[in-house]
Specification:
Length: 499
Amino acid sequence: MSQFNAGGTLPLTPENLPALAAAVTVPTYDRSRLRPGIVHIGVGAFHRAHEALYLDKLLALGEAQDYAICGVGLLPGDTAMRDALVPQAGLYTLVERSSGTDDARVVGAMIEYLHAPSEPETVLERMADATCRIVSLTVTEGGYCFNQGTGAFDPAHPDVVHDLAHPLAPVGLYGFLAEALRRRRARGLAPFTVLSCDNIEHNGTVARTMLLAFLERQDPDLGTWVAANGAFPNCMVDRITPATTDADRALVADTFGITDAWPVVCEPFTQWVIEDDFPQGRPAFERAGALFTADVKPYEKMKLRLLNAAHIGIGYLGNLAGYTYVHEVMADPLFERFIRAFMEEVTPLVGQVPGIDLAAYKATLVERFSNTAVRDTTARLCQHGSARLPKFVIPSAVELSARGGDSRYTALVLAGYLRYLQGDGEGGEALPLVDPLGERLRALARSGGADPRTLLEGCPEVFGLELPRAGAFVEQLTAALRALYADGASATLRRQLGA
């Protein structure tokens, strides 16, 4: 029997789904018949708005019943997600928000959630079991334990150091993958497919390279077996999904009558392009809107160089100009012109993308950034820059410099990041720096001031080795950074655009 809360809302539980069906789409498939064919590591908002939704759509069609998700949290702080999802049997509300409408559905694709620090053996056995055919990842760019500037594996990462010394008691990503694969080999099972869904160019290749580098140090024979038999498809993922807020919880309660401890709110747009390399089988994600291809690279480059790089400009320059939300930045005609100009500048680097009209794609990006309902924050876009800049902006800067073309807008995007690192806003307010290299970067920024070379040369992990030698680009970067310090973001944009 449905049990209402005092406020007239229903708790999100399997028993209450029939009563909720009048207000939202709910799972109509029998969740008790599902088997966990996918173990997903890093259950955040994006995974639940993306991969889990695609699977939920397949389950609603009566397909993929052997590919339900067992979610895994690797971090001690993931207890909050566990405490939210376990009482709800893995159910959560997904709200797609546009400037005009809100559309909600309860997603039932996740049938189990495990907290690795509390139950490591259970996690290892889920991955080592024959039912598991895919281990997917959303562990953020920084979760892959490699030098963002050079691409080299980082054997000094604390998780790596621990797991190399304690292979049977892992705490990090590669330690868990290695021990689960070791058990599968001992049982005569093929490796699971590792599917990275993070915003990293060639994400599957990066996952493969870093795992093999780890195994080379821990268990070379296992590494040889994985290299010969494992699969690491690349994929491009796209959906703007801000972190859940109390306002989102209130929205779900007030609009749809659901008490949900951790709903997800996102934009309506979603895209998933996947390299078709799944030797152990896969769900027919194409039936839910995904695109399978032999080569993901053009789609990756398009998304990272245009969407993600534009987000960098919106986040840091918009924040410096005093804007809280992304849509507020885009409502400023000056910033909209700048973002359009920046995307035009880097478009020649993207090349041809099969089936994509780049002009229409860029227009869609402006529309998506301007969505007033999603309420994505500039503060979110300013987090973990040391992992994002080397993937989204610096490659374009290096390529533009090599071509000898104009790169004034790319220089200004990067200058916005360098100016933000200094830590004091244009009005003297403190700028929070959420980044594992934050203290070091801030010290370099304050030492160098308006001269970017201190940062470029002092942190090759972020800026690489080529960018500091790109003379013409560094000159443009220096001019942009000096202008930001002297005049502020809006005045600098106005001068650059001739407005």
